[in-house]
Amino acid sequence: MPARRHPTARQVRLGIELRRLREAAGLKATEAAGLLGVNSVQMSQMESGIAGVSEQRVRRLAANYTCPDEDLIDALAAMATDRTRGWWEEYRGVLPAAYQDLAELDHHARFRHDVAVIHVPGLFQTEDYARALFAFMNPEFPDTEVDLRVEHRMKRRVVINDPDPTPYEVVIHEAALRLKVAGRDAFRAQLTRILDMSEADHVIVRVLPFALDDFAGAGSSMVHLGGAVPRLDTVVRDAPHGTAFVDSEAQLEHFRKLFRRVKEQALPPRQSRELIHQLAKEL
Fold first, then answer.
1. Which of 53, 70, 208, 217 is a plausible cystine mate for 173, CB 3.0–4.6 Å?
2. Contact at 8 Å (CB) between 42 and 51?
3. What angle do CA 264, 188, 106 make, to 5 degrees?
4. Which residues, other chains included, contact 25 with Cβ-Cβ below 8 Å and sequence gap of 6+?
5. Which candidate, 44, 81, 38, 41, places its Cα nearest to that of 59?
């Protein structure tokens, strides 16, 4: 398969998992290359996502690596054969790659768990709220650049608005529900949208109230996307210079525990809706 100039996060992840399987088997890259009849450069390209890999090769490598996890191998084979070209492709080369990567991960996720401390989660944001955020964070951008980012964010909501939506569970700190990012009227509409979405069967909203005595998780904001198997989960976090995709098993388990802990501290869904409703009435 021809080399890719800009592999997606999902393509890179497939290569990372193949490398992890090889390393667990105690084989060198040159030895694995020999199993496929390719050279070490080609093997390196497959393990970095620069070159594609067929389902047949995924299964051949897994067999030689004596990997016993059939569900994982099936999931990796599905990733290798996936040719989905979703709506996000129209933004490739126009917006930063992380925008397309996150939309693609959303599309394939079995579930999504968010923790939002300062801002309303992206999938809940209204157009006015998102526009205010992008314009403030990027004051040098012309309106056309802000428009593109807002448009992309609004389209990402398809995963929870679709007839076959992704299960979505979110914990929002009260701080995010009080910061009037886009002005009073726009923010009232923002809270109304959260209330409307919280009524959906596939959405669970919990609020961390200011009244909580022992919440020390101000830096807990994250997006946790469920993979076809738990090992293929991804956690997305904002980093100083862009978006960070977390995929090591140790880190994933850390964030799973963090989400459970934050969720346990939050108000239950009914009380959370009552608090959001009260905040909306106060505006």
1. 208
2. yes
3. 55
4. 64, 65, 66, 67
5. 81
Sign of CA dihedral 94, 97, 99, 103: positive
Order of strands, edge to edge, in the sheet holding 234-239?
Answer: 203-208, 168-173, 112-116, 222-225, 234-239, 242-246
Question: What averages of pLDDT result for each successive group of 10 residues across the chain (283 residues)?
Answer: 78 97 96 95 95 95 95 97 93 94 96 96 97 94 96 97 96 96 94 97 97 82 96 90 90 96 96 97 90
225's enclosing H/E stretch is: strand 222-225
Instruction: Annotate 168-193 with DSSP letters as a single string.
Output: EEEEEEGGGGT--TT-HHHHHHHHHH
**C-alpha radius of gyration, the chain, whole number:** 21
- C-alpha 222/C-alpha 229 separation (Å) is 20
